[in-house]
Amino acid sequence: MNPVDPIILTAYLLCIAYFLWQIIKSFDDEFSIRVDEDALKKLLSEKKLDDEQKLEDVIGISFKFDKRYEFDKLKQLEIHITNKSNNHSIYVDWDYSTLTDLGGRSRRVTRLMPGVTTDLFQTQVFSTVTPNTTLKEKITAEDLLQRKQEKEKDSPLNLVFEVNKPLIDFKADKKKYEKFMQRAIELEFFLNLAFRLVGPTRALGGERFYVLCKFILNKYPWTVGLPWNPKK
Questions:
Q1: What is the pTM of this model?
Q2: How would you write the pLDDT of the chain (232 residues) with one tens digit per residue?
Q3: DSSP 53-72
Q4: What phi, psi does 87 have (nearest 5°)?
Q5: Residue ranges of domains in the chain
Q6: Cβ contact 58:85 at 8 Å
């Protein structure tokens, strides 16, 4: 055997191992997100309005998620708000609602609407959910929005907002990120929604009530990212 052959073989095997490791890393960036249903149901069942009516009899809240996401693909949340009452409207006060990041920093919620060109510092119009109907909206954090850049300098599309960052920065806390990548811990963040109930006995400027939703993030093993595993 040529004395150089073992060196060539070792180098070849190291290259194969390196490329396999890079392939694994490219798949190792997916997670699932879910709302803490038990905590939400408990809050709605225990919280009462000023007339002792349970919140669970008035409002229903749910979210729509894909089966899994890459770290940089979750940029918004799709929320469904159902009005279960027969004679009251629910007003969703977006300006008084907040999203936290993984460090607990509070951020104003922004409701996403196609072609929005208004100033971010302006007050958002509240959404109305009439009796026995469901509101479906997409929301994100205000700090993720920026003006859309177009080639034409004077194009009106330059005023349109777009989401340019992921909703969650996984690497904000490096220690938690490392444990999350090892699947040793879950990560969580919160959405605090502000509502008003308006009807025969409640005026438009009625007292706000808040519903806190907790989201839980779980890291998938790298094998989930293989092409034959569906994302939805």
A1: 0.82
A2: 567 656 665 665 556 655 555 555 555 689 999 999 999 999 999 988 876 788 999 999 999 999 999 999 999 999 999 999 998 899 999 999 999 999 899 999 999 876 555 555 678 889 999 999 999 999 999 988 876 664 445 555 455 677 889 999 999 899 999 999 999 999 999 999 999 998 776 666 667 899 999 999 999 987 776 666 666 5
A3: -BGGGTEEEEEE--S-EETT
A4: -140, 15
A5: 31-221
A6: yes
